[in-house]
Amino acid sequence: MTQTDAHSSEAQLDAATVPSGSTSTTPKPRRIAVLTSGGDAPGMNAAIRAVVRAATFHGVEVVGVRRGFQGLHQGDMRLLGPRDVANIIQRGGTVLLTARSHTWRTPEGRTLGAGHLKAWGVDGLIVIGGDGSFHGAHYLQQEHGIPVIGVPGTIDNDLYGTDHTIGYFTAVETALDAVDKLRDTAASHERIFVVEVMGRHAGHIALDVAVAGGAEEVFLPEEEHPAEHIAQVVRDSAAKGKASSILIVAEGYPGGGEAVARAVEAQTGLDTRLTILGHIQRGGSPVSSDRVLASRLGEAAVLALIEGKSDIMVGRGNGGMTFTPLHETWEKSKDVSRDLYRCAKTLSV
Ligand code: F6P
């Protein structure tokens, strides 16, 4: 079996075991484009590298678009070869730069961008980003018939259709490292530490960090906590003989870490500190799980375009590739693991 056969048979095997996106019989693309959009995520560079290298392997040229849809609207593009993506697999951020584009939200902006793609002879676009970016890709396909494939790149892990998103594993490690350090000082001063982590409207990062960091409590947007419960958590901890506590709060929890810290202090009078980890969670060298995921998904996106798929996101689920219609990635929601939430509660006894 040649390398090419191996690649296509793996893709066919995967496609046969999971729901497939729309597939057409259009000829193999000769040139495709790739961009990163929305908040950056560690592993985006590994995905860009995978797209360029996989496309080259299959005889397809790649155009890199700078600054996401903003750059597409402005025609800020250049050809990328395999050597252009050397030495980036280990780097955080995105070498293509990223932006949250306002012009792309207008049909006129999208028409300009589509014109640039057509002028460059681009037959398909790979968008690495989150659900906002996938909206932009979906409209481009709907309005201008340009095949698009989404690659899930966001630290939030909030996209339906994939077990994990690129950047999530690294963000959890970064937040966990901070929590471990905060625990040292919390224990020494016998203080309550409230730590707010990112995740937008989802609590995936918060839950994993809470379990891995041995937190006393976790506050998720997906779970309701009556006001009196917040202080009760701390009193219970004290009654159990704990001199210090770590409370993890997802930024999407109503009022965020600020509300929890204020409630704890007001209701218990205990010495409480708030740490908002913020954008530090988006930086840093990607951990191996993010690099591997990005490499797999970048390659899968190229294969999907070659196979004539469009308007879908490539992802991973049940040990194989998944292909989810783009609109489902934002219309359906991915819940946090209720089982893990129960586990977090059990282990904070
Ligand atoms: O979506 C990634 C994310 O980091 C969220 O966790 C956070 O809510 C948001 O982006 C922050 O966006 P910005 O970088 O525009 O402040």
TrEMBL record:
Residue numbers binding substrate: 154-156, 191, 198-200, 251, 273, 279-282
Residues annotated to bind ADP: 49-53, 183, 214-216, 240, 242-244
GO cellular component: a single term: 6-phosphofructokinase complex
Enzyme class: transferase
Residues forming the catalytic site: 156
Pathway annotation from the record: Carbohydrate degradation; glycolysis; D-glyceraldehyde 3-phosphate and glycerone phosphate from D-glucose: step 3/4
InterPro entries, A to Z: ATP_PFK, ATP_PFK_prok-type, PFKA_ATP_prok, Phosphofructokinase_CS, Phosphofructokinase_dom, PKF_sf
Region (Disordered): 1-30
Cross-referenced PROSITE patterns: PHOSPHOFRUCTOKINASE
Binding site for ATP: 39, 100-101, 130-133
Major localization class: cytoplasm
Keyword vocabulary terms for this entry: Allosteric enzyme, ATP-binding, Cytoplasm, Glycolysis, Kinase, Magnesium, Metal-binding, Nucleotide-binding, Transferase
Catalytic activity reported: beta-D-fructose 6-phosphate + ATP = beta-D-fructose 1,6-bisphosphate + ADP + H(+)
Biological role: Catalyzes the phosphorylation of D-fructose 6-phosphate to fructose 1,6-bisphosphate by ATP, the first committing step of glycolysis.
Name listed for the protein in its UniProt record: ATP-dependent 6-phosphofructokinase
